[in-house]
Design a protein that fits this description.
Helices cover about 25% and strands about 30% of the residues. It is an alpha+beta fold and about 190 residues long. Strands 4-3-2-1-7-6-5 form a seven-stranded antiparallel β-sheet. A three-stranded mixed β-sheet has the order 9-8-10, with no helix packed on it. It is elongated.
């Protein structure tokens, strides 16, 4: 994998709302990772753009936020995530902000799927990449081999699936609670 874009951006902290300078790396697989500094020693957070991001705002679209001192509103970016968090960023210039927005938007919609696992670094042709809610990629055989009348159209798909939850424990607890309730009511009726 390679970097698509890297550089410094100011990021507003979530609790104290202070502006902090972070180093950002956008990888070709769509992961946006930001660090304390350019050495990449301490990861602050990461976002998988095709899975986590639902909207990217720029400039005056950024709501309820004021840019840092000396910066115009046109340098502002906001990444709105599926889980409800919003990451507020400020670029050095309007042109840099626009470049980041286009690059992030492109990574959100046109990401090539790369992964690591039993396939030695990349998924083989004819597989479909499925992302779980935690961002983990899984390769599954492509289910629709028919290309259609005009051939297969190029495009990327991201399918989000929730993790399968085991309901057997809920069933057992429900049965146990029902049995206990039945025994309590049964003993109550023997009194009358």
């Amino acid at each position: 994998m390679a970097f698509v874009k890297s550089g410094w951006l100011l990021r507003q902290s979530t609790i104290l709302k202070r502006w902090k300078k972070n180093w950002f790396d956008l990888w070709s697989d769509g992961h946006l990772i930001y660090y304390d500094d350019q050495t990449r020693q301490s990861v602050e957070d990461k976002i998988h753009m095709p899975v986590d991001c639902i909207n990217i705002r720029m400039g005056h679209e950024c709501r309820d936020i004021q840019p840092p001192d000396g910066k115009p509103k046109d340098c502002m970016l906001q990444i709105v995530c599926r889980d409800g968090k919003t990451i507020s960023l400020c670029a050095e210039s309007t042109d840099d902000c626009l470049a980041w927005k286009f690059t992030l938007q492109d990574s959100r919609t046109n990401t090539q799927a790369y992964g690591y696992g039993p396939y030695g670094g990349a998924y083989p042709p004819g597989t479909q990449v499925v992302y779980a809610a935690n961002g983990q990629a899984y390769a599954v055989p492509y289910q629709y081999p028919y290309a259609g009348l005009y051939g297969q159209q190029p495009g990327n798909q991201v399918i989000i699936r929730e993790r399968y939850r085991d309901n057997d424990s809920d069933l057992a607890l429900g049965m146990l609670a029902g049995a206990a309730t039945g025994m309590a009511l049964g003993s109550l009726f023997w009194v009358f």
